[in-house]
Design brief:
The chain is an alpha/beta fold and 224 residues long. The protein has two domains: 123 residues, Rossmann fold (3-Layer(aba) Sandwich), CATH 3.40.50; 96 residues, Arc Repressor Mutant, subunit A. 45% of the residues lie in helices and 24% in strands. The chain is elongated, with a radius of gyration of 20 Å. 25% of the residues are buried. Pfam families: Response_reg, Trans_reg_C. It comes from Sphingobacterium bambusae. InterPro entries: CheY-like_superfamily, OmpR/PhoB-type_DNA-bd, Sig_transdc_resp-reg_receiver, WalR-like, WH-like_DNA-bd_sf.
């Protein structure tokens, strides 16, 4: 069963859409404002988010931005009457996967939800990485070695994944900072160094794995 986080402040529309989705086999959690939506997402990550833009307390753009700070993979559909090109572009820039304009037919929304969740499931199935003797699970945010398991933060997972996907290549510091800190200051640079030190510590039980600091340029992960 697909879990849908549906965020809509118009009560009558929310009731119709929620009932229709549930009738088609979806499990729906409905929230009426952006603040509650973010809390609900972090409490129990859904399979997909269907999100209005104009809402009280926190608008849909801000909700999407908060979600993408901690999750890059869960699909987001904007379902909104805001149809200006600049709104659509902004939505996709903030990490949306689809944009449905009101008024809409429920059948169209269902097809889009099914397509995005199917694609997400395929991607998630490929999100385990064998790094030396370790297994990195980017969905569970864990790094495992035998029976030992370390719980990683979102940034630790994404940083290690990026380093591994570019194994034997230098990953520039600026590229990492832009991707995960959105700034290039002394403090974010120092934060990156701290995260690299943590990851080195996690991986220290496999002596073949090294993360080399290429001074003033970036980092390179190698496995001998």
């Amino acid at each position: 069963m697909v879990d849908v986080l549906y965020v809509e402040d118009e009560t009558s529309l929310a009731l119709i859409v929620s009932d229709s989705l549930e009738a088609h086999g979806f499990q729906v959690v409905h929230k009426q404002n952006g603040r509650d939506a973010v809390i609900a997402f972090k409490h129990k990550k859904p399979d997909i988010v269907v999100l209005d833009i104009m809402m009280p307390m926190m608008d849909g753009f801000s909700v999407a931005q908060e979600i993408r700070k901690v999750d890059l993979h869960t699909p987001i559909i904007f379902l909104t009457a805001m149809t200006q090109t600049e709104d659509v572009v902004k939505g996709f820039h903030l990490g949306a996967n689809d944009y449905v304009r009101k008024p809409f037919k429920i059948e169209e929304l269902i097809v889009r939800i099914e397509a995005l969740t199917k694609k997400a499931n395929i991607v998630q199935a490929q999100k385990q990485y064998q790094i030396g003797h370790f297994t990195l699970d980017t969905i569970k945010s864990t790094l495992s070695l035998g029976n030992e398991q370390e719980k990683l933060s979102f940034r630790e997972v994404e940083l290690l994944r990026r380093l591994y996907e570019h194994k034997d290549e230098v990953v520039p510091r600026e590229e990492i900072i832009r991707a995960y800190w959105n700034d290039d200051t002394y403090f974010t640079g120092r934060s990156l160094d701290v995260f690299i030190s943590r990851i080195r510590k996690y991986l220290s039980k496999d002596e073949r794995i090294k993360i080399t600091n290429i001074r003033s340029i970036g980092y390179m992960l190698t496995i001998d």
